[in-house]
Design brief:
By secondary structure, the protein is of the alpha/beta class. Helices cover about 30% and strands about 25% of the residues.
Length: about 150
C-alpha cells in the first residue's frame, strides 16, 4: 500500500553511499527530510536532478532539512556518481526495491522505468508532499516550496 500525504514514514534501513548501514531513525522524526526516488545514476535527467539538488543544497540545509536520494543502483555506483558530481547528500541503494515498495513508488512508462517521486517529510516524520513527475528539476522547487511552508 502506497504512503500518502499525512502518513508517518515507517522505519527503514538501507545501504548508504559508502556501503554502510543507514537507519532512517537517524533523521526521520528529528528534522525535515526530502527523500527523492530516481531511476538511475549517471543518466541525463537523473544527473540533472541530482546536480540541481546539489546546487540548491544550502537552501535545504538553511531550512534545517536533509536531502536523501534513492535508486536501485549499488552503493559502489552511488559512490562514483556522488564523487563525479560532488553530491553533498546521502544516496541510498535500493537494489531489492524494498524502499520503493515501502513508499509505493510507481514505475513509469508501462512499468519499464523506476518512478521519479519526491517526498517532503516534516520534523515529526509526517509526509507533507508527494510529487510524482518524470521531469527532474521541478522536484527541487516543489520540495523547497513545501519546506518553506512547514518550517
Amino acid at each position: 500500500m502506497a504512503l500518502k500525504v499525512g502518513d508517518t514514514v515507517p522505519h527503514f534501513i538501507a545501504k548508504n553511499t559508502q556501503g554502510e548501514r543507514f537507519d532512517s531513525s537517524s533523521v526521520i522524526g528529528k528534522k525535515p527530510v526530502v527523500i527523492y526516488f530516481y531511476p538511475k545514476d549517471d543518466t541525463r535527467v537523473c544527473t540533472e536532478q541530482a546536480c540541481t539538488f546539489r546546487d540548491k543544497y544550502e537552501e535545504f540545509t538553511d531550512l534545517g532539512a536533509e536531502v536523501i536520494g534513492v535508486s536501485g543502483d549499488s552503493s559502489t555506483s552511488h559512490q562514483k556518481f556522488a564523487q563525479k558530481y560532488q553530491l553533498p547528500f546521502t544516496l541510498l541503494s535500493d537494489h531489492d526495491k524494498k524502499l520503493r515498495n515501502l513508499f509505493g513508488v510507481p514505475t513509469a512508462l508501462f512499468g519499464l522505468i523506476p518512478g521519479r517521486v519526491t517526498y517532503v517529510i516534516d520534523e515529526k516524520g509526517i509526509i507533507r508532499l508527494i510529487f510524482d513527475n518524470l521531469s527532474g528539476k521541478i522536484h527541487i522547487e516543489k520540495a523547497l516550496q513545501m519546506l518553506k511552508k512547514i518550517v
